[in-house]
UniProtKB/TrEMBL annotation:
ANK repeats lie at residues 85-117, 127-159, 264-296, 328-360, 361-393, 394-426, 427-459. It comes from the Eukaryota. This is Uncharacterized protein. Keywords: ANK repeat, Repeat.
Length: 551
């Protein structure tokens, strides 16, 4: 019987730990996969959760009868929103390409221009996402047509990039969708995004030549509109990168301004010659393009930012806005803090860089410095007005970042400057939870010494009142010093957590498969943890040989 109970208890423990590890640990660690997040811009929807309510599931699986039955009983829930992503069932149907479901939901009163906002799995904040935006990015032409026929607005800008459905279709290289939007549905071609980039410039950057032909030939299209950072036109961009096909299309169909000047006075011909693109420069000369700047070199601002202090200074001194965004919505200050370019950071701050600018993930430069743990950069930013309590898209503060990485000195500086010790992440807890999950006893002790409650609790995923000691047993059971610090501070060693598997104690959750199990177990038991703690099935924790060793 004892062996059977031990096996059953092990299964219960592992089942629960697997459940939590899959849905919680990743979020608590909050170590963002930036590459994956950037790919989501281009390859996938920025929305990673397409709804979890019953009506979302019915829409996803085209369960027409269930949709009708549900809406008959819940007429006012046709636009029910997922609590995390803000997605409606209509958006779910648009993403999956289910035209029949789209028609049914619109017929039952769904809002064709519903704007959702939320936070995706990469910590990216978004807003103003509409059903037609989702359908356009997935390339579902029939659905886009039907939505527009029923009043969908094609000109709504979706953050964080400020893309319209046409921008997104161009970005995803949906040739047929672009043609449908422009030629059949009269989508506006020259609406700028948040950086002043219109769909034509987007097409040039993507080298989408067939799409570019469609756009520049559209009624009312202007192929000479510059973006806002450096006044770069589509022709400048094509000339700089030697894209002869785009240069020819912009001139022949789009009637581009051959001598448009970007910041610094450079014309497209200047850039083609500078980059030694002979075919492009010959073509531009033959159609009447002129030179303007002969004794200077131009680089795209993003290259200047990454190129060190000298090119960065040159760009700023020529008139580029010091707060222009470059990568993921961040500024040059974000980038240079991340790369530990000290002189560049000081230069940018002298030039008026916004020390509290938030990128697309909500991170400020102080978040970047905290993540690295460099106290000199933290002091520099704080001395220039950085908000120590700034919250990013995931609800994390700079103190959360230092707690996750175990940066003791950095955490101390933030605390000394007024950091919020109790700030709670959207999908996790306060900084003490971050330190506990990662097993950083140094930061955990620091937080405790500043009055943080050792019995702090948080809602983790869907589970309420999870104590920091419970989380520590699950994730830092191999680090007895974390458990000991909490126990010594007065943590309740008999704290429990209610799950579908039962009501589990700290001993149930302590991972057996680590070489510090006995030591952690001893700390808990000596502090008064109940050896016979019961779960819902009234099985007791099996101590096995470990209990004998401690007698």
């Amino acid at each position: 019987m004892a062996a059977e109970r031990a096996q059953q208890e092990a299964r219960l423990r592992q089942s629960f730990i697997d459940f939590v590890a899959g849905s919680i640990a990743e979020r608590l660690e909050a170590n963002l996969d930036v590459v994956g997040a950037l790919r989501s811009y281009r390859e996938k929807s920025i929305i990673t959760n397409l709804g979890t309510l019953p009506l979302h599931d019915f829409a996803r699986n085209q369960q027409m009868k269930n949709i009708k039955k549900y809406l008959s009983a819940h007429k006012n829930e046709v636009d029910c929103t997922d609590p995390d992503s803000g997605v409606t069932p209509l958006m779910t149907a648009c993403s999956y390409g289910h035209l029949k479901v789209v028609k049914l939901l619109l017929g039952r009163g769904a809002n064709v221009n519903f704007k959702c906002s939320g936070l995706n799995g990469h910590g990216l904040k978004y807003s103003n996402v509409t059903p037609v935006y989702i359908a356009a990015e997935e390339g579902h032409e029939e659905i886009v047509r039907y939505l527009v026929e029923n009043g969908a607005d094609l000109n709504v800008k979706c953050s964080p990039l400020g893309f319209t459905p046409l921008h997104r279709a161009v970005h995803c290289r949906h040739d047929d969708m672009v043609f449908t939007l422009v030629d059949d549905l009269d989508a506006t071609v020259n609406i700028p995004n948040s950086d002043g980039q219109d769909p034509i410039l987007t097409a040039v950057k993507c080298r989408a030549h067939e799409i570019l032909d469609t756009l520049v030939a559209a009624k009312g299209a202007d192929s000479s509109i510059p973006e806002t950072t450096e006044k770069v036109t589509p022709l400048h961009y094509a000339a700089y990168y030697g894209d002869l096909k785009s240069v020819e299309a912009l001139h022949a169909i789009g009637k581009a301004n051959l001598n448009a000047e970007l910041v610094g006075g450079f014309t497209p011909l200047d850039l083609a010659i500078q980059q030694k693109h002979k075919k492009v420069s010959d073509f531009l000369r033959n159609v009447g393009a002129q030179r303007n700047v002969r004794n200077s070199q131009w680089q795209p601002y993003v290259d200047c930012v990454a190129g060190g202090l000298l090119p960065l200074k040159a760009a700023i001194n020529k008139g580029v806005n010091v707060n222009a965004t470059v990568v993921r919505g961040g500024t040059a200050l974000h980038y240079n803090v991340s790369k530990l370019n000290w002189e560049a950071c000081k230069f940018l701050l002298r030039k008026g860089a916004n020390v509290n600018h938030q990128d697309h993930f909500g991170d400020t430069p102080l978040h970047k410095a905290a993540n690295i743990g460099r106290t000199d950069y933290l002091k520099l930013l704080l001395d220039n007005g950085a908000d120590v309590k700034a919250v990013n898209g995931a609800g994390s503060t700079p103190l959360h970042a230092t707690a996750k990485k175990g940066h003791y000195s950095a955490a101390k500086i933030l605390i000394d400057n007024g950091a919020d010790l109790e700030a709670v992440e959207h999908e996790g807890g306060s900084p003490i939870f971050s330190a506990a999950v990662k097993g950083h006893s140094n930061v955990l002790k620091l937080l405790l010494s500043h009055g943080v409650d050792p019995n702090s609790k948080a809602r983790i995923d869907t589970i309420d009142n999870v104590s920091v000691l419970v989380i520590s047993c699950m994730h830092s059971g191999h680090k007895p010093d974390v458990i000991k610090a909490l126990v010594n501070a007065g943590a309740d060693v008999n704290a429990r957590i209610k799950t579908e598997q039962g009501e589990l104690s700290t001993l149930h959750l302590l991972p057996v498969e680590n070489d510090k199990y006995d030591e952690s177990l001893k700390i808990l038991i000596e502090a008064g943890a109940f050896i016979d703690a019961e779960v819902k099935t009234y099985e007791t924790v099996a101590l096995g040989n470990s209990s004998k060793k401690m007698k």
